[in-house]
Every structure is written in structure tokens, then in C-alpha cells.
Write a structure and sequence with these properties.
By secondary structure, the chain is α+β, with helices and mostly antiparallel strands. Helix content is about 25%, strand content about 20%. The chain is built from 17 helices and 27 strands. Helix 4 crosses helix 5, helix 12 runs antiparallel to helix 14 and helix 14 packs antiparallel against helix 16. The N terminus is likely disordered.
């Protein structure tokens, strides 16, 4: 799936309607820049980034195949996975053994192309024997792969377009992992891991009085830690700041007065003073034998989520904001709108599913809208009907000055219609790319981030996660205020609910999505941090100069600590980025007690006039120069005619 609103830049686009092309890669920009026009209109030449969407396999009863292989073969596969920067952080624990069992060997003839650039893929490969040559149309041969090398990693996450061609240079063999099998493994073990963690907590004697719903929440932010043999886990007399449950191995309990007092085994919990009362450790605990694996609960994490309470037996689940989406009867208020009463001024966006047009009333040109027409039959074919209905239900219920307003929807047998608020200033993406050095100064970045943060607080307070934050999805109105647009990937979650769809724009995808873990609003907090960095730097912290998606994902998995921080970033900027771009979602700023709005109290926003922003009294540093409400200088030029779609005879949109 692509974003519904396409680039708002003054250039020409070509729509490829080849059915073999992945739908998330349908748009290719032509090298037809109108330099004089661009210079005059002062708009962006940057390349627009597209998002991807892939629903996970939900059949947890599907059997996982086991292909017999020698111990040497198993070690070869294990070594390859554990030494791949990306896979080592994705295929871990019990997943790893099941993946090894599920991989099968395939023979490849000399000169056979196992992967072709531009095609969709659904297999990951590890070279078992022989050699392979990697090439691209643009650069020719770029790499050689020998035994133990991994390639095609993205295919196990979603139907990614292959970024190079891989050809055998001699008779070779590869180990193969199917995407469907991998996702079944992930689905099964995500459920099993949740059950296992809860089981450990329920069986811990000191937690018998704790409500099970509380323990389910606690289970979500338990951390895995490993202590090698002989490692002191904590010492007698130290402050009690962490609670432990042994999941594997043995530990010894030692005191200064009595020496060895006993041992702890799998299922035993210790360090409970950290979650029952303040105090110091009453003994020293040392890892024995082959080491100890533990699930740990930091008292700081505990208080971040349950408030300033030290005793776990006295807490209850925090009351999450339960503001309802106040569904205004916009369809009633705007039911008089008829397409026949409006004049199409210009198509301002085009995609495989339809077109976005700027329209104004024939009798009163001051009445303008952005009318989005989506092809029903195409969306049914791509199985996007639930996402479209979800987009409509969420956006039409939102009423915030920082969210693009959806006034009304309509349908006929060929199209679905969205009547949207028109934002004549175009995309933040355009303005950013056109700045000197392609970056904003700090006050401008703070204003843009402030507008977005108001939108996120509004959504998160109502249980909605957005999932595709980026400058391309931030539009500017005629007064220079920033509005969040394109709700294609937004989703309403129930309290404490999580989801697992792989969705987002690569540079903004959170680590937990890459790891195929269940997630919630914390992914928006991560993306908010990425956005701040890009506004100030002109590129995201995890970008790749060759735009290689695999490299981008590896950069994300390596973490923000590996990112080179520009020297002009202030101390407060660095601080907010460090607190938002944390790999552990439970530790991100805005995820604790107080919710997303807590971000507004960070020192980077010190002195920011939040009330003035909410009342739209602040003067925007981004002011589009518009001569009238018909001035489209910041909009795109869409050339050619849309193909006329066939009628959709299904009943998928009967309630639209």
C-alpha cells in the first residue's frame, strides 16, 4: 500500500500500471524537472518516500516443517544468522532453533538468477556452497557472496521489491526460509512467550496477591538478562533496584555472616525488596555453572508505568485516557455537497488507486476542497477494503486544528470519494528540502514538531496509533500551521491492546516492528524522534546514501547510539532524541505515566507557547505566499488521464 496523497511538487509523474509490479512500488519519478518553474515556485526537488504494509500470518495452528539436517549444517545456518547485523537482532531465542529446523536446501545452476532486481521476493537465503554475484542495473556488479553469507532478508518481513540481482557463478546450494513459515514461527512464539512470562509471574510467591491484569502489564516490560558463570548479580548492602526471575540456570545465595545459604533455580524469583519496599539487599547472589538467564523488572520501569508506588501488591492498572472519538455528524452537515456543483481546477495527486483533485464551487470559488477518488475494484483486488474503511472511520471522527479534516465520504460503483480540507501550503517535506542546506533552524523545527505533537496527543488520548509519521504526511495550511494528513495506516486500539502489522516508511520504522514484536503507540514516539532529527539535519538518523532498505533497517537495529550527531545540535535536542529513540519502547519519553503529553514538558520545548499554539495565535515561521484560495503554486502537476476503472460489484463498501 502507498500513501493515498501523492507528492505535492511541481513535476511530472508516470503511473506504471503493470500488474506484476508490487503495489507499494507503483510510482516512478521521471527526470523531467521544470527548472525555471521550480525556481519561480520555490518548491522541493526531493524524492518522496513510500510506506509499506504487510499483514502478519495469523494461523497459529499451522504446523512448522522440520527438514532433517546434520549438526554441521545446523551450525552453518546458526553462524550465518548470528553474524548478520540485521538477523542477529530479529531471529533470536526459540525462534532461532525453529528457523534452523524450517530451512531447506535448494540447488542453483551456474548462471541461474535466484533473485531479480525489481521483483517481489518471499524467501531468505544463506549460501550453503558455491558463489553468487550481486549486481544492479545502475552500478553493475557490486558484491560477491560466498559460503555463510545471507541475502534476501527483507522478504521474510514483507513483500519487498528486490534491490539487486543475485546470480550463481558456479553450481551452488542455498538454505531457504519461506516468509510464510517465518511469520508463522513469529506468531506462535510471540503468543507462547507472553504466556510463559505471565506463568513465571503467577508462580512467584511474592506476587500471589497481585491482580492478574497488573501482572499481564508487568510481563510486557520484563527484560531478558544473562549473567555468565561466576558473575555477581547483586551484592549484599546495595540498594534494591531490580527484581529477578530465573528462566534458566542456577544461582547461589551468599551472606557475609553465614556464607552459602542455598541455591536458586529456574522459576525462582529473588530481589523482591525492589518491588515490595525500599531497602538494601540482604544477601549476595552469584551466577553458577553455565550462567543464569533472568527476566528482570527495574523499579524505575515499574514506577514509570504505575506511578510513585514501590509495593507491587498495592497497585492497579493505571487508568488510560479514555477520551472517545466525538463523531460529529459531518456527513449530515455536508450532505448537500455534490460533485456536479464543483469545478475541477487541477489534479494534485495521482496513484494506482485513484486521483486527488482540487475543486471549487462553480458559484462561489471561495468554497474549495481536495476531492480524493479511489478505485473500488483495485482496492478490492489488493484487499485494502478494511484499511480504507478504517481510514474513513478514524479521520472523519477527528476534530483537531492539527489534523486534516475529512468532511464527507461518498461512493458510486467505480469510486469512493473523500471530501478533504485543502492545505494550500503543500508538504513540510517540500519546504524542508528547499531550505538552505535542506534543514530547518531550531525554532522552525520546534514549531513543526509542536503541531505534530498536539495531533499525536489528541490521537493517543483516544487510543489511536498513527504509524506513518514523516514530513511527507505533514501538510501546511494557508496560515502556516502544520496538519497531520493521510490516515491510511492509523489504527484504533483498545486499552492495553497491541498489534503486529508490519507498517511504516523504512527510515521511520521502530525496532519492535522490525523484530516482528507486538507494539502500540510507542512506535509513534520513536518516529517523532526520527522526525525531529530530520527537521534539524535534513535527513533521518538511519538513512542510507544509496537508499538501501536493508542497510536502513540495520542502522535502526544498531540504534541511535551509533548515529553521528551533528555538531550544531543543542544539548536539549540531543537529550530529547536520546529519550525518544530508545530501543526499549517502555523507556521512551512519553510512554510513562502522563502519556504522550509529557514530551511537551521536556527542556527542548522550554518557553514554547503551547497555549498560543492551541489557540492558533502563534505566528508560524512557515508562511506560504498565496495570492488567493485558488493559488496552487505549491501543488503538483499531474499530466495525462486516469484510466477508467471497472465497476466493483462486491458488497465490501456497502456501509461506506
Amino acid at each position: 500500500m502507498v500513501s493515498w496523497l501523492l507528492p505535492t511538487t511541481k513535476r511530472t509523474y508516470e503511473l506504471k500500471d503493470d500488474e506484476e509490479t508490487p503495489f507499494c512500488e507503483k510510482y516512478r519519478q521521471l527526470d523531467e524537472f521544470h527548472d525555471e518553474e521550480l525556481a519561480k515556485l520555490n518548491v522541493n526537488r526531493g524524492v518522496r518516500r513510500f510506506a509499506v504494509l504487510w499483514e502478519p500470518i495469523k494461523d497459529r495452528n499451522k504446523s512448522i516443517p522440520v527438514f532433517i539436517k546434520s549438526e554441521k549444517d545446523k551450525e552453518q545456518i546458526k553462524y550465518a544468522i548470528e553474524n548478520d547485523d540485521f538477523l542477529a537482532k530479529v531471529i533470536v531465542g526459540k525462534r532461532l532453533q525453529k528457523v534452523i529446523d524450517a530451512m531447506y536446501v535448494s540447488e542453483v545452476k551456474e548462471k541461474e538468477k535466484i533473485i531479480r532486481e525489481g521483483r517481489q521476493g518471499k524467501h531468505l537465503y544463506i549460501v550453503a556452497s558455491g558463489k553468487f554475484q550481486v549486481s544492479t542495473e545502475e552500478k553493475g556488479v557490486v558484491n560477491t557472496l560466498s559460503v555463510g553469507k545471507v541475502f534476501g532478508e527483507l522478504a521474510i518481513l514483507y513483500n519487498a521489491r528486490r534491490q539487486a540481482t543475485v546470480k550463481a557463478t558456479m553450481p551452488s546450494k542455498v538454505w531457504v526460509l519461506d516468509r510464510e513459515i517465518y511469520q508463522s514461527i513469529v506468531s506462535i512464539y510471540n503468543v507462547e512467550e507472553k504466556k510463559e512470562r505471565l506463568k513465571f509471574l503467577l508462580e512467584c510467591p511474592v506476587l500471589k496477591q497481585v491482580d492478574e491484569d497488573v501482572l499481564k502489564k508487568v510481563a510486557e516490560f520484563l527484560q531478558k538478562e544473562y549473567f555468565p558463570a561466576g558473575k555477581v548479580i547483586f551484592r549484599e548492602g546495595e540498594p534494591a533496584d531490580k527484581f529477578y526471575i530465573i528462566t534458566a540456570g542456577t544461582a547461589a545465595i551468599v551472606t557475609n555472616e553465614e556464607g552459602l545459604k542455598g541455591y536458586l533455580y529456574k522459576g525462582n524469583c529473588f530481589g523482591e525488596r525492589a518491588i515490595l519496599s525500599q531497602g538494601c539487599r540482604q544477601a549476595t547472589v552469584i551466577s553458577k555453572d553455565t550462567g543464569v538467564e533472568c527476566l528482570t523488572l527495574s523499579i524505575q520501569h515499574f514506577m514509570n508505568h504505575f506511578g510513585n508506588v514501590r509495593d507491587i501488591t498495592k497497585v492497579s492498572l493505571p487508568a488510560l485516557p479514555q477520551k472517545n472519538l466525538e463523531v460529529q455528524q459531518r456527513s449530515e452537515r455536508y450532505k448537500h455537497l455534490r460533485a456536479s456543483d464543483f469545478k475541477i481546477v487541477q489534479a494534485i495527486g495521482e496513484g494506482g488507486f485513484g486521483v486527488v483533485e482540487f475543486i471549487h464551487h462553480k458559484k462561489d470559488p471561495t468554497i474549495t476542497y481536495a476531492l480524493k477518488r479511489l478505485k473500488r475494484a483495485r482496492m478490492v483486488k489488493e484487499k485494502l477494503y478494511n484499511h480504507i474503511k478504517n481510514e474513513k472511520d478514524i479521520q472523519i471522527a477527528c476534530e483537531s486544528p492539527f489534523i486534516v479534516e475529512l468532511y464527507k465520504t461518498d461512493k458510486d460503483k467505480k469510486y469512493l470519494y473523500f471530501w478533504l480540507e485543502m492545505c494550500l501550503g503543500g508538504e513540510v517535506h517540500n519546504w524542508l528540502s528547499n531550505q538552505r542546506r535542506s534543514r530547518f533552524d531550531e525554532p522552525t523545527a520546534k514549531f513543526v514538531a509542536g503541531c505534530l505533537l498536539e495531533a499525536l496527543v489528541y490521537l493517543h488520548d483516544r487510543g489511536i496509533i498513527y504509524r506513518d509519521i514523516k514530513p511527507e504526511n505533514l501538510l501546511i495550511d494557508s496560515k502556516g500551521y502544520v496538519k497531520l494528513a493521510d490516515f491510511s495506516f492509523a489504527k484504533k486500539l483498545n486499552p492495553h491492546e497491541r498489534t503486529s502489522t508490519f507498517v511504516g516508511t523504512p527510515e521511520y520504522v521502530a525496532p519492535e516492528i522490525l523484530a516482528s514484536m507486538e507494539y502500540d503507540r510507542a512506535v509513534d514516539l520513536w518516529a517523532f524522534g526520527v522526525l525531529i532529527f530530520e527537521l534539524l539535519k535534513g535527513s533521518s538518523p538511519f538513512s542510507d546514501k544509496y537508499n538501501n532498505t536493508t542497510t536502513i533497517y540495520r542502522n535502526i537495529q544498531r540504534g541511535f547510539s551509533k548515529v553521528k550527531i551533528p555538531s550544531f545540535f543543542s544539548v536539549d535536542v540531543i537529550s530529547i532524541l536520546i529519550n525518544l529513540l530508545r530501543h526499549n519502547p517502555e523507556e521512551r519519553l512519553g510512554y510513562q505515566v502522563g502519556g504522550t503529553g509529557v514530551i511537551q514538558t521536556h527542556s527542548w520545548f522550554s518557553g514554547f507557547d503551547w497555549e498560543g499554539l492551541r489557540q492558533l495565535k502563534m505566528v508560524s515561521p512557515i508562511r506560504p505566499k498565496l495570492s488567493s484560495n485558488l493559488d496552487l503554486r505549491y501543488m503538483s502537476v499531474v499530466r495525462g488521464k486516469q484510466s477508467i476503472p471497472s465497476e466493483d460489484k462486491s458488497d465490501y463498501f456497502k456501509d461506506f
